[in-house]
Amino acid sequence: MATVGESLVPMGRIGAPHGVRGWVRIQSETRPEENILAYTPWYLRAGHQGAEARPVTIAESRIGGKGPLARLDGVADREGAAALTHSVILVPRSALPEPPDGEWYWADLEGLAVVTTADEELGRVQTMMETGANDVMVVAGERERLIPFVQGEVVRSVEPEAGRVVVDWDPEF
């Protein structure tokens, strides 16, 4: 159970119902995707902004042909499963293992200031996105910027304790 004030980290979403007995597809953001089933407890938040997260318990889970599937306690039919579609799956930050040195969870980067090597602030990490070639920071400031998260080349340092990410990036770009 998350403690009061503990941060919850988005790990995926509830997808479409699977069958008629309350199972749902899980759209996981973990790698490998089935790892999401190992993190507990889960909290669900309806897809709209400002919705409150509520704790849920996984009654059963398995890996289907198209990825993870789960049935949650109290959900016994297709209609109940459909009501959960698009809900965000969150887990307490404390449930996650510490990442190896030089790696960070996306949730730990969100909100950090992004500054150039010349100490010019570009904005804050609004979110991260996966593009295939490399991850990209969506930086919101005077304008939105998409900055590749390529360590050593673009990202010079990540300093969570200082609340910032230092990048070698032209502010005009």
UniProtKB/TrEMBL annotation:
Alphabetical GO biological process terms: ribosomal small subunit biogenesis; rRNA processing
Domain of life: Bacteria
RimM N-terminal domain: residues covered: 11-94
Keywords from the named record: Chaperone, Cytoplasm, Ribosome biogenesis, rRNA processing
GO molecular function: ribosome binding
Subcellular location: Cytoplasm
Cellular component per GO, a single term: cytoplasm
Family, as annotated: Belongs to the RimM family.
Domain comment, as recorded: The PRC barrel domain binds ribosomal protein uS19.
Protein name (record): Ribosome maturation factor RimM
Organism: Thiohalospira halophila DSM 15071
